[in-house]
Specification:
Elements: H1 3-18, H2 40-45, H3 50-68, H4 76-105, H5 119-133, H6 144-168
Length: 171
C-alpha cells in the first residue's frame, strides 16, 4: 500500500476517533478503522510502503551495477537497507502531512483540526519495509535461504501488523 493511502487511512481513523459527528472524511474504503472488512490481500500488503520499495529496488539495481564495477563497495547491502529503513518514516511523515493538508483544503476535515502523526502506522510501515527488504534478491551473495525465510517473515509480520492495528492504531 502506498504511504499516501496509509496516511489517508490514519487520518480517517484519527478523525473518527476525535469526533464522529464533526469529521466526515471521505474516500477511504476497506481501510483499517473504516468499518468495512479488509481483504486477506490487503492485510498482507497494508503496511508495505510502495514508495520506499520502489526507490529501494532502483537503488539495489544501481548498487548491483556499481558493485560489479567495483565502485561504491563501501555502501554494502546493509547500508542500503539501513538507509531506506530510516527513509521510510521520513517519507511517511511527509505523506501524512501532505494528506492532512490536502484533506483540510478540500474541507473533508474540520478547519480547526490539528495534525497528529500516526505513530503506529509509521512504525508498522518501517518494520514491514525492513523485513521485506531482506527478501530482495541481489543484495546478499549466496543467501537464498535468508531471502526465502525473509519472504515468509514478511508475510507473517504484515499479517501481525494488520492485527496489531486493530488493537493499537485507534489509541
Amino acid at each position: 500500500m502506498s504511504l499516501a493511502s496509509l496516511a489517508r487511512q490514519s487520518l480517517h481513523r484519527n478523525a473518527v476517533t476525535v469526533s464522529r459527528e464533526r469529521a466526515q472524511v471521505g474516500g477511504v474504503q476497506n481501510g483499517a478503522g473504516s468499518g468495512e472488512p479488509v481483504s486477506a490481500l490487503e492485510q498482507l500488503t497494508q503496511y508495505i510502503p510502495t514508495e520506499t520499495v520502489t526507490l529501494f529496488i532502483a537503488a539495489v539495481s544501481a548498487w548491483t551495477a556499481l558493485h560489479q564495477a567495483e565502485a561504491w563497495l563501501w555502501l554494502g547491502p546493509w547500508g542500503l537497507i539501513v538507509a531506506f529503513t530510516v527513509l521510510t518514516p521520513i517519507m511517511f511523515w511527509i505523506a501524512a502531512l501532505a494528506t492532512f493538508a490536502e484533506q483540510k483544503r478540500a474541507k473533508k476535515i474540520p478547519e480547526d483540526a490539528n495534525f497528529s502523526l500516526p505513530i503506529f502506522d509509521m512504525v508498522a510501515a518501517t518494520i514491514a519495509f525492513f523485513v521485506w527488504s531482506l527478501a530482495v534478491p541481489g543484495l546478499f551473495d549466496g543467501a537464498a535461504v535468508l531471502q526465502v525465510l525473509a519472504a515468509f517473515a514478511a508475510v507473517v509480520v504484515s499479517w501481525l501488523l494488520s492485527k496489531a492495528a486493530l488493537i493499537f492504531a485507534g489509541q
